[in-house]
Amino acid sequence: MSGRTGQRSRLTRWDPLTVGIDVGGTKVLAGVVDATGRVLSRERRVTPGHDAQAVEDTIVELITAAAAKHDVAAVGIGAAGFVDASRSRVMFAPHLDWRDEPLRDGVARRVRLPVVVDNDANAAAHAESRFGAGRGHRLVLCITLGTGIGGALVIDQRVFRGSNGMAGEFGHMQVVPEGHRCPCGNRGCWEQYASGNALVRDARELIDNDSPVAHRLRQIVQRDSSVLTGPQVTRAAMDGDPLSKELLAEVGTWLGVGLAGMAAAFDPDCIVVGGGVSDAGDLLLEPARAAFSRKLVGRGHRREPPILVAALGTNACFVGAADMARSAARRSVRIRRRSRDRDSLSRRRKLRASSTD
Fold first, then answer.
1. pTM of this structure
2. Alpha-carbon distance 77 to 100, whole Å?
3. What confidence category does residue 3 fall into, taking pLDDT thresholds of 50, 70 and 90?
């Protein structure tokens, strides 16, 4: 962890320790990370409601606690929302009251460290590309399967953010014209067929219709479909429930169809799938791989990119955010060094001038 008892972990000038923060609708997760992606410490707090100031206070408390134990040089924040191209403001967060929130400057002013803000899926993708399943690949397509679908495209270890910083909203590609209504306002979005929400929606419908094939799920929730969760369906599938396995396979098939479209657009070296739904493993990914192979453009005449399971789990977002902050820390070191050099040069010039008087 942090070395001998009572001794703070220290940084070096070019490989500093940094703090990563993962801010979600239910939890705020913080970790101190070194330049190799190793997590030195980790702390979790419950997200304090939707109030923007309370969330900022929690972030600052976690950073302060980390800085008391480790010699940290910068902070990276992965936020579940739309982050502007300057990586300073959260333009909109669906689960928090952040609307054009100047998060970077607000936190930096209080902790007196360089701060970088990015979308949580971007941060996770950066981590998987640098330290996880995508390591060693030049072009990595990362997909995060949770309540919806997020992700990012990483090229030469740099996240592609688009002109407004909002690239990677892959879940809102339309795959079924006039299909299921999506909270984004459109119909037939990919995440309405290949996400945790899709899995739970279909399971609840079968329970509510008293389908005989849903007897196991009906037992689990005691006939109250409103309390059913995605992890419950996944666990039932792993325990052998035929319906749950079928529902996961349907989600996997839609995942593969969408990934084939993504591969046609980006031709990645590999595809990394993470997020809570990916915990289903091959129950999800085998149908996805099969559908992907069937739908891939140029199939049989091209290299098929592998579909890999993300390696960093719940640490991915804060590890990626911390690594993004490391470049800000290095810039800060260079700026301070240039400033000292200028001051030293100015003093020498003044000394020379006074000696000639």
1. 0.83
2. 16
3. very low
**Alpha helices of 132-281 — where are they, by DSSP H?**
196-208, 215-220, 230-238, 242-266
**Cβ count within 10 A of residue 27:** 12
3-state secondary structure of 179: coil
Structure tokens at 71: 């010699």
Summarised one tens digit per residue, pLDDT across range 11-45 is 555 688 999 999 987 889 999 999 999 999 999 99
Structure tokens at 4: 């001998």
Which two tokens mark 66?
A: 């980390």
Query: How many residues in total does the chain contain?
Result: 357
Q: Percent of the chain at pLDDT above 70?
A: 89
Bridge-based pairing of strands 99-101 and 90-92 is: antiparallel
- Distance between CA atoms of residues 219 and 79, nearest Å: 37
17-125+314-341 and 135-311 share one fold: yes
Helix (H) or strand (E) holding 289: helix 282-295
Q: Which residues contact 347 (CB under 8 A, 6 or more apart)?
A: none
CATH 3.30.460.10 is right for the domain spanning 17-125+314-341: no
What does the pLDDT look like over 182-224, one tens digit per residue? 888 899 999 999 999 999 999 999 999 999 999 999 999 999 9
**Domain boundary assignment for the chain:** 17-125+314-341, 135-311
CATH class of segment(s) 135-311: alpha beta
